[in-house]
């Protein structure tokens, strides 16, 4: 089977609405390349670029979807974006992202490890001698490699909450689970019951597959469903913690459903700087409480919210 691969380069500030477009188009898959050795480097430019590089995969006959992507680039970044397209074989598509996805640490203890490297001696030597906590992940076509600022911010915060070797939460829900990386992190920190959901069927498959790649103490429960934030299980069942790595646009549109989540504490990410204050106002109006913690990285925020 063949796929159409689009290599897209666009400003980082457009990545949020661009991902929303890709999700609405239901592409076969896409992923962001954090460091791209093939991309031209501007004079005096550091390692992290202002633009982001994204690989997108479509069926070969999905010309209309490719056209919508090109229109987006033309409208929003006519002078600061580019794209190129080629036809690749299925195996090339399935293996492409592995070239850029290598083990890396997050926080004090966490290590994100690609599943295809989990048993490599050099990989094991990275985390095991220091008592690190490995998260074995194959992102596939789902969001959640651990590279993106929003994912790293939540994992770093969870890692800090586990700093003394104890975790205060026994149950949690993961709203917009993607690859399942945050749920797996919660489980490794000792959360014994986790309910995850995502509207993307590929994410649900990826989350379940990644869950089986990791090991946990006996008695752990994990379930994942294809659904939105209106899932009745979020309100009918009680959780110690909720996490939501979702864009402001989706969160704001579903604020009334968020208010029904039966958890006293919710950790949000996916909020950009220009929307932070507006989102906090929404929380105070619909989920009265207080902000326990916040941190910014590259214009993205993690917000730890305690409900009254």
Automatic annotation (TrEMBL):
GO terms for molecular function: protein methyltransferase activity. Coiled coil: none annotated. GO terms for cellular component: ribosome. The lineage of its organism: Bacteria, Pseudomonadati, Spirochaetota, Spirochaetia, Leptospirales. GO terms for biological process: methylation. This is 50S ribosomal protein L11 methylase. InterPro entries: Ribosomal_L11_MeTrfase_PrmA, SAM-dependent_MTases_sf. SUPFAM superfamilies: S-adenosyl-L-methionine-dependent methyltransferases.
């Amino acid at each position: 089977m063949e796929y159409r691969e689009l290599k897209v380069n666009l400003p980082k500030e457009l990545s949020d609405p661009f991902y929303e477009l890709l999700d609405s188009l239901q592409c076969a898959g896409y992923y962001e390349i954090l460091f791209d050795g093939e991309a031209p480097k501007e004079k005096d430019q550091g390692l992290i670029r202002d633009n982001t590089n994204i690989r997108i995969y479509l069926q070969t006959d999905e010309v209309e979807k490719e056209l919508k992507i090109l229109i987006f680039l033309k409208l929003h970044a006519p002078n600061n974006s580019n794209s190129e397209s080629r036809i690749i074989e299925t195996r090339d598509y399935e293996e492409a992202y592995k070239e850029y996805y290598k083990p890396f640490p997050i926080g004090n203890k966490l290590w994100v490890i690609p599943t295809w490297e989990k048993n490599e001696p050099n990989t094991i030597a990275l985390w095991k001698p220091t008592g690190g906590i490995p998260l074995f992940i194959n992102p596939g076509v789902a969001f959640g490699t651990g590279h993106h600022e929003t994912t790293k911010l939540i994992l770093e915060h969870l890692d800090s909450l586990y700093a003394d070797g104890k975790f205060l939460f026994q149950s949690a829900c993961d709203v917009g689970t993607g690859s399942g990386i945050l749920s797996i992190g919660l489980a490794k920190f000792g959360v014994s019951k986790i309910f995850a959901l995502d509207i993307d069927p590929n994410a649900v498959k990826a989350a379940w597959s990644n869950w089986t790649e990791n090991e946990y103490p006996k008695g752990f429960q994990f379930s994942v469903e294809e659904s939105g934030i209106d899932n009745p299980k979020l309100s009918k069942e009680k959780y110690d913690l909720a996490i939501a790595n979702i864009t402001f646009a989706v969160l704001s549109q579903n604020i009334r459903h968020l208010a029904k989540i039966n958890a006293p504490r919710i950790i949000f990410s996916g909020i950009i700087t220009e929307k932070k204050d507006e989102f906090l106002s929404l929380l105070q109006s619909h989920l009265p409480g207080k902000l326990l913690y916040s941190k910014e990285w590259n214009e993205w925020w993690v917000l730890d919210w305690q409900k009254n």
